[in-house]
Amino acid sequence: MLALLALPANALDIQKSSQIGDWQVIVAQTANDGLSCQALLNASNGSLLLWGSQDRNSITPLVGLGSGYPKGSRAVVNIAGQNFEFHQPKAAGANRFSPIAKADDAKIVRSLASNRNAKVIGKGKGGQFTLRTKRMKQVLSFFNSNCGISLR
C-alpha cells in the first residue's frame, strides 16, 4: 500500500486502509501535511491518485504515467471527456503528474463526481491507458468522513 503514496515510509503513519470497488484508499497522518486521505485507481500502465489533506480541505488529482520523466515534462490527459494539461513538477524518477493549472484540481474532481461513467484516458511510456472511475461518490464520502475534506 505504501507504493501508492510515493512518500518515504517514515513520513507517514497509516491509520486506516480499505478498498472501495477498484480504489485503494487510506487515511494517514503525514509529517508535512497533517491528516491525509488518498485514493488510488490503477491500470497496467497508468494510475489516478487523489490526494487531499485536512489542512488544505481540497483534493489534488495526480496521474501516474510511468517513471523516468524529466522535471517539466508535460502530458494532456482526458478526464470525463475534457482535456487537462498535467506536468511533472519533481526531479526525474518521480512518476506523478499534477495539473498545471491549480484551478483544474477542483474542476477535475467535480467532473469525475458528477459523471458516473467518467473515464480517465492518458498516454505514457507504457502506452495508452483507460481508467473507469466507478464509485467516485463513495471515494469522496471517504475523504469527507475520514479527513473532513469536501468539495467546495
Structure explained in plain terms:
This protein is of the alpha+beta class and 152 residues long. Helices cover 16% and strands 46% of the residues. A ten-stranded antiparallel sheet has the order 1-2-3-4-5-8-7-6-9-10, covered by helices on one side. A hairpin with a 2-residue loop joins strand 9 and strand 10 (127-132). The chain is globular, with a radius of gyration of 14 Å. Residues 1-5 have low confidence and may be disordered.
Task: Tell me the span between the first and last alpha carbons.
Answer: 29 Å
- State the helix count: 2
Integer average pLDDT: 86
The percent of residues in helical segments reads: 10-25%
Extended strand count: 10
Shape: globular
Q: Give the uncertain stretches in residue-range form.
A: 1-5
Instruction: Kindly provide the radius of gyration, computed on alpha-carbon positions and rounded to a whole number of angstroms.
Output: 14 Å
- What structural category arises from helix and sheet content? alpha+beta
SSE topology:
Blueprint: E1 12-20, E2 23-30, E3 34-43, E4 46-53, E5 58-64, E6 74-79, E7 82-87, E8 96-99, H1 103-114, E9 119-124, E10 127-132, H2 136-147
Antiparallel strand pairs: 1-2, 2-3, 3-4, 4-5, 5-8, 6-7, 6-9, 7-8, 9-10
Task: Name a few traits of the molecule.
about 150 residues, alpha+beta, 10-stranded antiparallel sheet, 10 strands, about 15% helix, disordered N terminus
Write a short abstract of this structure.
With 152 residues, this protein is α+β, with helices and mostly antiparallel strands. It has helices at 103-114, 136-147; strands at residues 12-20, 23-30, 34-43, 46-53, 58-64, 74-79, 82-87, 96-99, 119-124, 127-132.
